[in-house]
Automatic annotation (TrEMBL):
Domain ABC transporter per the UniProt entry, residue ranges: 10-242
Keywords: ATP-binding, Nucleotide-binding, Transport
Ranges that cross the membrane: none
Protein name (database record): ABC transporter ATP-binding protein
One Pfam family in the UniProt entry: ABC_tran
GO molecular function, one term: ATP binding
PROSITE patterns: ABC_TRANSPORTER_1 (PS00211), ABC_TRANSPORTER_2 (PS50893)
Keyword flag Transferase: no
Keyword Nucleotide-binding: yes
Family listed: Belongs to the ABC transporter superfamily.
Signal peptide: none
Length: 268
């Protein structure tokens, strides 16, 4: 359910990224990426391994400079990490000595929010993430899926304009991953945050997104943007519908050759 506003939360304009390697040829990771994401929209990027998807996410977050081009958040150029963006990585990266509540509040506290206020905000997002009753547990007492929910809650607690998700469920088993996709949708529908997700799972991208952006093999380029017209709210049952399967097949056919080539190269 994309927000009805026409404002662009994120604008990616002519982004190129070339990595230099001492004594070796340069590697062109991204070529002329143009992409806009509206306020409240959920967009996923899919493509073969090595197509620059995670590189783009790090450029958007300000962790990596582009070789050329510009990224704008609400019209302002990105030059470094900022509180208007929050990143969730594949591994949860929670602080093991802190409770769930203190992990979720951590970004607020280091940003100068009084601890009492930070804890109150943390509890709101803990409840949103379905973790009420676990706020005093520690990461080692939680399942992998629960830890990733804490990770998402921590990212949302700082009230980012954009939530960047880099394969957040890749380390989970298949069944837990399905449940986490549903949980993420529930959280997103409540928070109304703009989301950009990187994933290798085409069905995950179709299930979650308003739009799926298909990248070519390296150098990564926008090959096609696929609107996802499936009605919201969505539950996991939608994955068994013919329209869902048709969208998955369409995207798979766009990248199948490159995915097979990437697998063959990795085996060589």
């Amino acid at each position: 359910m994309a927000n009805a506003k026409s404002t662009n939360a994120l604008s990616i304009e002519g982004i190129n990224k070339v990595f230099g390697r001492p004594g070796k040829p340069t590697v062109e990771a991204l070529r002329n990426i143009d992409l806009t994401i509206k306020e409240g929209e959920f967009v996923s990027i899919v493509g073969a391994s090595g197509s620059g998807k995670s590189t783009l996410l790090r450029i958007i977050d300000g962790l990596l400079p582009a070789t050329s081009g510009v990224v704008k958040v609400s019209g302002a150029p990105v030059t470094k990490p900022g509180s208007d963006r929050a990143m969730v990585f594949q591994q949860d990266a929670l602080l093991p000595w802190k409770s769930v509540r203190d992990n979720v509040a951590y970004g607020l506290v280091i940003g100068g929010t009084p601890k009492r206020d930070a804890h109150a905000t943390a509890m709101r997002f803990i409840e949103m993430a379905g973790l009420k009753g676990f706020e005093h547990h520690y990461p080692h007492q939680l399942s992998g899926g629960m830890r990733q929910r804490v990770n998402v809650a921590r990212a949302l607690a700082v009230n980012p304009r954009i939530l960047l998700l880099d394969e957040p469920f890749a380390a989970l088993d298949a069944q837990t991953r399905e449940i986490m996709q549903s949980e993420l949708l529930n959280i997103w529908q409540k928070s109304k945050t703009t989301v950009l997700l990187i994933t290798h799972q085409i069905d995950e991208a179709v299930y979650l997104s308003d739009r799926v952006v298909v990248f070519s093999a390296r150098p990564g380029q926008v090959r096609e943007e696929i609107p996802i017209p499936l009605p919201r709210p969505r539950d996991l049952e939608v994955k068994r519908h013919e329209a869902f399967g048709a969208l998955v097949d369409k995207i798979w056919h766009l990248i199948e050759h490159e995915v097979r080539s990437a697998v063959a190269d990795n085996r060589a």
